[in-house]
Amino acid sequence: MFTMMKLPSAWLTGVRLKKIDTQSSTVSVKHRWINQNPFKSMFWAVQGMAAELATGALVIGYIRNSGKKISMLVVTNKAQFTKKATGRIDFVCNDGDKIREAIDKTIATGEGQTCWMKAVGTNSDGVQVSEFDFEWTVKVKD
Is the pLDDT of residue 7 over 90? Predict the structure, then answer.
């Protein structure tokens, strides 16, 4: 429901949060007609939405658990593509500890913090197709 209401373009293209805990999250998307590029693989922007959600879901979770009003924003991102993305692609982020530390620090100091988080996309054969790095900023709201 979250993707349909808050991220409709991600929902329409099939991006779905499959798993989340304190350490990691997994987002899955299947290559289909609606999310393909002219080369018959998944459009890079769809991969980016899935990868950003894999990192952002952890950020949102820790903000909610903190009980504080904290802003979040991606300020930088980098991507690397290593294979055509076809079939089902899972994006996994294992950086829960990193964002927890950044949120704890912004709560303690009141100063904005940055945190680089990585999401790796692999196909059903376990072959990496892409890797995204997002620099998130978090700051307690006044």
Answer: no
